[in-house]
Amino acid sequence: MQWRLAYLIFLCLPLTQGVPTYAARTPDVSRRETQLDPRAGAALPGQPNYTAIPNGQAWYDTDGNSIQAFGGGFLLVDTWYYWVGQIFSASTGPPYNEALVNMYKSQDLLNWQYVGPAITVYTPDVNGVQQLTYCQVQRPKLLYNAATSKYVLWAHWELTASFDPSEVLAATADNVEGPYTLTAKGHHRPGAGNQDASAMGERVGGLTTDYSATAKDGSNTAFAYQPVSGSDYPPKVQQYGSVSASDPQAVSYLSQADGYGEAQIDNYWTYELTGITFNLTLKAISVQMTPRDTSFYEKYSPDFNVNAAAYIIRYPTTNRSQVSTTVFTIGDPGDERKSLVSPAISPGLDESSSNSTVFVHSGDAAFITCNTTGGTIWYTTDGSNPTVNGTEYWSGTRISITGSNLTVKAICALNATSSPIVSQTYTVVANTTSVPIFRPIVNLPSGTYSPDDSTFGYQSVKIYCPTYNTECYYTADSQDPDPPVNGTNIGYRSRDITVWQDPKDGSAYLFSASDNIYNRVWQLSDDFTDVVADKEYDVFTAVSREAPTVVRNHGASGQYVYLITSTQSGWNPNQAQYVRTADVTAGFDLPRDNTTGYRNGNSTWSSMEPVGDPSTYFSQSTFILNIGTDASPTYVYVGDRYNTVEFFDSTYVFLPLAINDSAPAATGATDSGLMSLQYTPSLQLSVANSSITPPTWKLLSLNKPVEATASVQLTADQAAAGTYNFSAQAANDGINFDVAPYDAVQQYYQPASVPFYWQVDLGQNYSLAWIGLSFMSVGGSDAVNRYRLSASADNSYWFPLVDNTQNLIPGFQAHVLSGSGNYRYVKLDDYNIVDVDHNKEADWEAGVYEISVYGNAPGANSSAISTSGPTSTTNTTAAPTGTVSAT
Ligand SMILES: *[C@@H]1O[C@H](CO)[C@@H](O)[C@H](O)[C@H]1NC(C)=O
Ligand SMILES: *[C@@H]1O[C@H](CO)[C@@H](O)[C@H](O)[C@H]1NC(C)=O
Ligand SMILES: *[C@@H]1O[C@H](CO)[C@@H](O)[C@H](O)[C@H]1NC(C)=O
Ligand SMILES: *[C@@H]1O[C@H](CO)[C@@H](O)[C@H](O)[C@H]1NC(C)=O
Ligand SMILES: *[C@@H]1O[C@H](CO)[C@@H](O)[C@H](O)[C@H]1NC(C)=O
Ligand SMILES: *[C@@H]1O[C@H](CO)[C@@H](O)[C@H](O)[C@H]1NC(C)=O
Ligand SMILES: *[C@@H]1O[C@H](CO)[C@@H](O)[C@H](O)[C@H]1NC(C)=O
Ligand SMILES: *[C@@H]1O[C@H](CO)[C@@H](O)[C@H](O)[C@H]1NC(C)=O
Ligand SMILES: *[C@@H]1O[C@H](CO)[C@@H](O)[C@H](O)[C@H]1NC(C)=O
Description:
It is a single chain. By secondary structure, the chain is mostly beta strands. The chain folds into three domains: 194 residues, Jelly Rolls; 349 residues, Tachylectin-2, Chain A (5 Propeller); 107 residues, Sandwich (Immunoglobulin-like). Helix content is 3%, strand content 35%. The chain contains four helices and 56 strands. A hairpin with a 4-residue loop joins strand 54 and strand 55. The protein is elongated and about 100 Å long.
């Protein structure tokens, strides 16, 4: 993040109209931004005693460590709430790389005890295999299965360096606190392996909808279906150049000149095998492939712009090498690889039916490795003896064997000393039965390595594939690499997930975001550890939704199931939206798409409606708690506030959520009910009383007189449409959502120039409690506003409240104020807008959806931040319509 600091040095604040001249008088005053810490007494880290949830702030467990449980799930067991979530920080438990899912418990939802990691790289499957080494585990959720008396944890699983696999895991335990054991399927795509004709899932060699950024809809004939190659997991070693449409069967090996290095693990931008702090087993196999299947290319290329690499594919066959296994033990290597030894030339006699030569096919290749750390390899292929002045062997070079035979000789050299020469002869034969598919070769030997060994650095571990025209697959999870063959059901890709048990009948479901365009519901098996092969459909098609979060309003007796999702905008927050259904299973009976086999269940859910502000108050949904009863629910929305500058410092947002089945949505739609989310800087709740304590403050700014920098004029068409409002008044009209930044409903204050100011006259002096700012955000953008807030009693002398001119974080901002000053006027001075991801100006994104000033008349009790919370959520009459930030 150093580059961002560098940027700040050059940040300048131009003085123009609207920029306040700060009073040179003694700042008597002092209602200024304050750090919120709703802990009783002089609580310090290590002595937490929270009386409210500190939204968007560091939140410490009872050991004084910041709570690390993102994308979390909750389960109430007796009187204890259990919270599982992803870990970003090494501040708790084992090193970050080893603890994958943290668990905490609490009886009051305020003070959390660290239970320990629920899932680590050592978590075994039912066969004792540690399948979770070297991976990412996200968005864990917990269920309890009464029939089996087991706790079931589901999560999203990926490789460390890529999201290609798009898999899930399920693990069970007899006790909620563990230990958890993975199911036999380990990590997998839901539905994978089920070959029943009725089973949902993609078949290798079949077709799927093109899920590129532009091709979103299978019914849109502008985009072709894509063939399913099944090559996402296990990953492949990159060793071929791109496929040529004119000669698809030609094989062209990559070389260092291609920028990949040769026989490279994965591609140029991934950092596979870095950050290894645990023993790691690397397994690889070489696989005979089918000839390239050109039928999809022939079918689509005349009418569609399809590329050969994606449409001319081949499939693994069951004709494979033995598994090559390399075990990296992490510890002190001592002198293990320091002594000078001769290199190994592979493949060797151990894979040959002769004891003097290795039978090969023309085009097979030899590779050379040396066990001596820092050793250089020198070699010849003309029968002469290699010397350090001859030809150096570069890691990954294919020594291709053609003609009738070849002899490779090599030495390893270190410190001007050379090892004895080794030699291997290869003989090209036509007899296929005498030549095996050779095992892949790993350039580094098994053994002990230091965790900071450069061995595991960028592109240093390489896997070589000796047999001509085979592909090499590898795993880092102790499982034998087993790529799916033509016809295999590989299930459906699955990224953000949740699992949810319907209180109505006890059945449970997996909600899973897939391919950036689907969001699927899949019924779980009776024991909740797998999906039911045929009970699946898509809630969303052709839209990018993630972070699924589910609740049935009014629990067992409730009529509707609500699903909140966000759009996909990396780690930046965006406008959450919800849909609802009266029957979560209705999509299971829908017909399948003839080509892809998908079931489009869009129509079984209501229209998508916004909840929260355009950045969901700077959060992404992950769970909904009910601390009330079914009849009188008190919902707590749980979201993650990702800190894109420093992920360890990411925080949580727990907010009161109200659901009204019969009210119209904020947009006026009548088929979705009304979900409303209110922001509060700290949430005071009482599990014992099943309640959220209402705040003492009031929204003061709603519809009060404003003045501001001139706003953008509506065009004639916009004025005629009647759905546009860029005036200054739009920033305190109580309407604070944005379904789509470029649709025909645009209601936010859009200044005509930047810098700009906006100020509100509250009508009388107030003791200000906090100010919420919802800035323009184009669909989860990386633009941040840099601004100051100030206040005045007389519209003449302005006192600084907040300086956020070095802001690095996009999305909603809440500034808590403390002190004794009372003010009638509040002003925003916005100096510039910066796209922090690309480090450039983004003034084009200037705008304010809503500025909300909260406080009390002087004399009223407004100082007790820690005893304040939002309005009770049991009262769902939100006014005016469309108000999500105001009550
Ligand atoms: C937490 O604070 C409350 C209120 O100040 C106090 O009554 C209670 O004893 C404190 N609990 C602990 C464990 O410090
Ligand atoms: C790593 O492997 C070594 C050697 O087999 C073993 O002694 C050690 O216990 C292993 N460490 C872990 C955490 O499994
Ligand atoms: C090579 O030289 C380095 C120092 O230059 C020394 O530390 C190392 O032990 C030497 N290795 C061998 C095998 O002689
Ligand atoms: C390299 O090290 C591995 C693992 O210790 C060993 O099996 C192999 O025989 C060694 N090769 C050579 C050429 O010394
Ligand atoms: C090599 O194989 C031949 C027979 O195929 C056998 O006679 C000979 O003893 C073997 N040599 C060695 C060194 O094993
Ligand atoms: C390599 O070449 C250098 C001169 O460039 C010579 O001094 C040295 O003896 C040569 N070494 C070998 C092993 O041939
Ligand atoms: C190796 O091939 C060459 C010609 O390509 C041939 O002359 C020689 O006899 C062969 N050697 C063996 C051991 O087959
Ligand atoms: C091919 O090789 C196998 C095994 O080395 C041998 O049994 C077989 O007789 C050979 N076939 C021919 C046609 O040479
Ligand atoms: C893959 O399987 C399909 C049938 O499922 C078959 O039509 C096709 O020819 C197969 N392709 C290859 C390359 O084997």
